[in-house]
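One chain shown below:
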Amino acid sequence: MTTPVRDLFGIDTRSLAVFRIALAAAIVADLLIRAADLAALHTGEGVLPRALLDEQVRARAPALVPVLALVPHVLLDGAAGQALLFALAGAVAVLLAAGWRTRWMTVASWVLLMSLQARNPAVRNGGDEIFRLLLFWSMLLPLGASWSLDARRAGRPSPPRLLTGGAPAALLLQVALIYPFNALYKDGAEWTTDFTALELFLGNATWSAASGTALLAWPGVLQAMTAAVLGLEWCGWLLAFSPVWHGPARTLAVLLFAGFHAGILVLSQIDFFAVVGIVAWTVFLPPWFWRQAAGVVGRRGPPPEAAPVRQPVPRREGTLALALLGYVGFLNVTGYTGLFGQPAPAVLQAPALVLQIDQQWNMFSPEPARWSRFLAARGESAGGGTVDLLAGEQPLGAGTAMHPPSGRFARDRWRAYFGYLRRQPAEARERLGGRLAAWLGAQWNAVHRGDDRLERVRLYRVDAPIALAGDPAPDRRRTRVRELATVSLGASP
């Protein structure tokens, strides 16, 4: 039993409705999580004032610096302005979930997300890249075709349909091709011969959760899981486009990749990337899945041999989507092969940067780091005491070891910011680090008086080795500590 080629790249309107609702829910969840650090990460009073933002954008894409003046989240740079924009984005997401004026709500959500991410690109992670791309391709699709206020307002029955053409194909291929491109970069021995990649990943104190750390007791299991992850990234996505037993094969692909992202969510502190990955795969649910689901819940559905009515998307949207997907694929290939060097010429990157569809899927490649790399901040008080400002604000003795950030500073956004800061060239790292240290000191001094007030904050980069099971010389590497910035604070009032 084979499926026509055009149907292999089709999307069931019921799956598109689930995807729409899940996408909107993820927008709201992201806003709520970001809101906890709104002033710190998204305003000029926080860790990235406008001048530093301009510097960071200029270093990557000088032509985009003037565009910042038009970005809403940059224009309304205070806490009140950001809160207003957060509330607006949340309201638009609720309307998107309900399917009211769906195309316009999708466009508005994309614009607001681009604006939000532009205000502080240093806190972006892989999940943000996928999230932005999902909204971009969604603008070319009728997300409100089923289970929406738009469909109800049409006033006529809306049977399940299978959307075919370039636009659904572009969304599906964008999601699927993340994985083989990521696998291409994973050519280190830790992925291909030693199979210690997951052991390194879960042994990294920067992002491993307690449940993941517990698995370190079974290195053999982790080796098998490493091989399985790489195999899934290389080949698993092909199940979604299998012409033979297409429905069961695509459903299996959804289960495998959703399970893969759920595993990341359970075993690590990498939250948003895992959630967005699950959201992305909901759009792959085939008509076969819905027929089986109808049977399980006892509803009468279409006969097993029946298929939803095909509905080609407008040719204009389809052609545009495929052209853009070809461009994105070209950038991915040239980025991997180094055809034009690193980075690609600005003239080739410009459209992708403006539309924010630029991408490079090289997570944990060519292998996960062999070091837990994190920042530590020590505040020195007027009374001669020392306090850890990132790992619990606990008093420290002279020889106390430095620990990874905890509490609010262990969240996705802060972890991304610390990683971004560490990767900057020395001059930019010193300025960003100085601003972070000054902000941490100001936050402490705002609620402490007298001898408890801080006079100085020192920011350090810490590289702690990850010990593998069976390592013949586990003590051959020592923790390295390097001071990044020192800031003297104002005198006590």
In short: The mean pLDDT is 88.
